[in-house]
Amino acid sequence: MTEVGIDAIEIRTGKLKLDLPGTFAPAQGEDPGKYTKGLGLNASSFPDTYEDIVTMGANAAHRLMEREGLEPEDIGRIDVATESSFDNSKPVSTYIAGCLEQVYDGKFSHANKGERKFACVAGTQSIDDAYNWIKAGRHRGRSALVIATDTALYARNDPGEATQGAGAVAMLISEDPDLASLSTEQGYGSADETDFLKPNQQFPAVDGKRSVKVYLARMREALQDFESVADRTHPDDFAYIPFHTPFPGMVRKAALFGYRHMIRDTSIEDELAEQIGRQPREEAFDEEEAYEEALTEYMDGLKETAAYREWYDRVIEPTLTIAREVGNWYTGSVHLARVSALKTAAEEGRELAGERLLVGSYGSGAQAEMHAETVQESWREKIEGMTLDEQLEERYDLSYEEYERVHDVHNHAIEIDGEIEELTAPDAEFVFDGWGRMGERKYRFAE
Ligand code: HMG
């Protein structure tokens, strides 16, 4: 059977950085520990005044195509996943293709272009669309370009402001992929929820505390649904488990639930029973509340065990290193988590080919998706070709006043008086270049 999956990946971060414990927390009158320890974040990536979802997506895609030696002729679809779109009709993929056509001789006239929306899970759904297109044999030997791009900004003083981020992940989806092949098996957990939404507004309406519960519930359903087709999962089955990471503290909660589920009725549960007892079983309780209490007590004990800590440090922690420095990238977030894990493995000189990942995507509104991936022979070369460290290092460190100003520039409801200043200089990249006669955005490649 032909394998289909991720052939190569490239990341583009917003060029500004907001230091959360150093700059944001003091201005908010908050303890830096809330960011570093509670949410698990050191910094957010932020877009400069000439950056947006198109420039970040096009810059990521351009570098990916250059690295892979691709021409427009080699790409049969361009799917963009975003929840920061600025047009209800014309998809962002047309803008990105237009940018790329400025720097390539060929055109993307043969390529199917679209835009996917389902909050943060849309990036994974776009990979799915590409997978199905290739599996159906409609790709004529071409690859799909999937771009997850977002400016994940919240209204000022919304609790979500602490978790902002901006960046794009471009992925090449191909037959016989060089990075990771995707399992046919998938699991879903989906429900009509109002935890986080943008009803014709730029910044989200969020029920933050509820969104955490909805994330956990949908993720649990997706894991169970995945097991119903792929067999039971065990903590030792996967080298890494990248989750959608709105902030690392969220994944800390999800991982504990996942581990509890996976060790149930295994020798790990038996071995831990001496220290923390066996897991409470719902059927043994008359009252839901008593069951929940017993579960909380068990989980509090579980997270302190050496077995759980060792597993968490090995399988989960490496997926969070990038998120800690960039915040939430919405549609790109779970794909950053995958890169984060593989990058750590490459840095540690670990051999991963043939090992499996369990990937947990999530989008508010709400839907979780789980599938497995198998790491391919050339994974290291693909990961080492990325320039993420340099990009993160080069970000401009915002003062609080600059942050306020740049947030206003990106706020569609605010008319800026005076000149809009850039904080960094464009360097061989696509930039926003003003408005056209029909209200369209214009872009150019700045040498
Ligand atoms: P909050 O209420 O400001 O924060 O916002 P908090 O008071 O709950 O504190 C956060 C954590 O820091 C807590 O840890 C505190 O105890 C801890 P927890 O109890 O949860 O383990 N803490 C400290 N720790 C050490 N030292 C200290 C300290 N102070 C506090 N000094 C909230 C938190 C998540 C509600 C907010 O950030 C928010 O609304 N975020 C946006 C929504 C969100 O990210 N939800 C996540 C699930 S939904 C999702 O992932 C989908 C999404 O990506 C969108 C999409 O799909 O499109 C958002």
How many strands in all?
A: 15
Question: How much is the radius of gyration in Å?
Answer: 22 Å
User: Can you summarize the main beta sheet?
Assistant: 8 strands, mixed
Q: Uncertain segments of ≥5 residues (pLDDT<50)?
A: none
β-strand percent reads 15-25%
Overall pLDDT score = 97
Provide a descriptive summary of the structure in words:
The protein is α+β, with helices and mostly antiparallel strands and 447 residues long. The protein has helices spanning 20-28, 32-39, 53-68, 92-103, 122-135, 208-230, 248-263, 267-276, 288-302, 306-316, 321-326, 333-347, 379-384, 388-393, 400-410; strands at residues 4-13, 16-19, 43-46, 75-81, 112-116, 143-152, 165-175, 180-190, 196-197, 205-206, 356-363, 367-375, 396-397, 429-435, 441-446. It has 15 helices and 15 strands. Helix 1 packs across helix 2, helix 3 (53-68) packs across helix 4 and helix 6 (208-230) packs parallel to helix 7 (248-263). It is globular, with a radius of gyration of 22 Å. It binds 3-hydroxy-3-methylglutaryl-coenzyme A (HMG). 3-hydroxy-3-methylglutaryl-coenzyme A binds at residues 31, 33-34, 37-39, 83, 119-120, 159-160, 162-163, 196, 206, 208-209, 211-212, 215, 244, 246-247, 249-250, 328, 330, 362-364.
